[in-house]
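REQUEST ID: PR-0412
SUBMITTED BY: lab tech R.K.
PRIORITY: routine
TASK: structure prediction, single protein chain
INPUT:
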Amino acid sequence: MAKNMMIAGKNFPDVVEFAESLSLSGNGVCVAASPVENTGLSSKEIGVLSWNKGSALAARSVVIQAETRLGPIDDYILYFDTASFSKEFDSLRPDVCSQATDSMTLGYQYLTMEILNRIQQKKKDSKLIFVLKTCPSEKDAILNPAVRNSSPAVCNPIVAAAEASFATFAETIAAMYGEKENVSVLLITGDENNEVIQKDNGFASWLIGYLEAYEQLKHKPNIKNTVSWIRAGVKNPGGFSLFK
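STATUS: complete
OUTPUT:
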């Protein structure tokens, strides 16, 4: 069944394939990003929302704009793509730190709070989905030099710290809200060796099937499973083996 989906965190043009794949499956899709010029989208069906990641007020505005465009949102997808951020923040300079913090840390936290508040206000069942696409850090490359040749990117300390922050934040949100009414929190991850998450059209196809199966569960997963990361590409829900 078609869903209304809001994607945030992965910027243009990197998000295009993922967003268009979800849209081509019949879902209503909005993308919150910054900047939003020259998106590269071929579909006019996808809503584009300008998002100032360093502003709490902008987070609230983005959530309301998504509802205005699509109606009630079924799935909120917060996507942290470490390799993509590594290209955007590829240097260690003091002037980079503030922008990087807004983009990779504060933005996700502000938006998560607004999404959860909105879900509680609306009393409509929705899913909050954290997606973490990891890549090796400079430390990993020192421990295993072959990483530099096999990985699309190696992240510097600023990006590596933000990745760890996103993971901890998502896990803690899942722990706090995983058993509450009207909201389901899912944590999904994959690294450079995960073939499903490396190709956004394939990842979108798998995600749609996984979410459809998740909705058929008679009961939510228990809290210990909720705070565990689901590997992109696993079989549809129904057993403990799905979780790391």
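NOTES: Residues 94-122 form the longest helix (29 residues).
REVIEWED BY: pending
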